[in-house]
Amino acid sequence: MTHPEDARPDSTGNNMLDWREGDMPYSLAFGDHFYCQTEGRLECEHVSLNGNGLPDRWEDHPKETFVIGELGFGTALNLTETWRQWKLARKPGQTLHFVSFELYPMRAAEIDRALSRWPEVDAERQALVALWPEEPHGIVELQLDEQTKLTVVCGEALQGIKQSDLVFDAWYLDGFAPSRNPDMWSVEIMSAIYDKTQERGTFATYAAAGFVRRNLQSAGFAVERRKGFAGKREMLCGTKQGDSKSTE
To answer: What is the pTM of this model?
Structure first.
C-alpha cells in the first residue's frame, strides 16, 4: 500500500486515493477518510444541512438563488444529499447554486464507487456521474437540473475563494481533519470566506478544534458549539454578524 509521504499529487488525484473496507475512500494526500466511517450521509445531514438551518431556510429565502459554498468536494456526498433534499423542498422559480473548492478532484468512476453505498442518493449519483468530465480541472460547471447548478473550482481553496465573484448564503466547511490539513482551516481562508458571505449567512463544520474556532472568530463570525455527530462531542456553527464576534 502506498504511504502518504510516498504519494505524488496529480491534477485529478487518482493516486491520492485508496479504498479501505471495500468502498470506503481514504485520502493518501491527507491520511484521512473522506467522511464518517459509521454513516457519512447522516453526518452530512446533521452537520452540513441542519447546521446551516437547511432545508428550512429555503422555505423563506428572499432571493431567487441560494448559494452554498463547500471546502472539499471529495466524493460529492454533501452535494448529492443536499441535492436530494433540495428537490423535496424547493419551490418553482427557486434555484440552488452549489460551489465547491477541491484540490484533488476525483474521476467519475471514483465518485460512482464511493457513493454507491447509499441507495438514498442513487438518482443524484447517476445524474452527476453522467455529467462529470473525464479529466476534471479548472472550473467545472454543470447544470444538474433546471433548478440546480454545480460549480467545482479545482485548485487551491484560498485562491479560488478570493477570485470568486459570488456571495454565499451558507458554507459547508468540510475539509479533512484540521490536524491532517491545517492549511484548509487557516485564518486566511476563514477571512476570505467571511468576506464572501452574505450578512446573516452561516457556516457549519464537524470540526471543533480550538484553533479552528479561534480562526473563525478572528475572521468575524459569531461561533456556536453544538452537539457533534455519532458520539463526537462537539461541532461548530456560526453566523456572519458584521463586527460581532463570539467570545464563547
So the answer is: 0.85
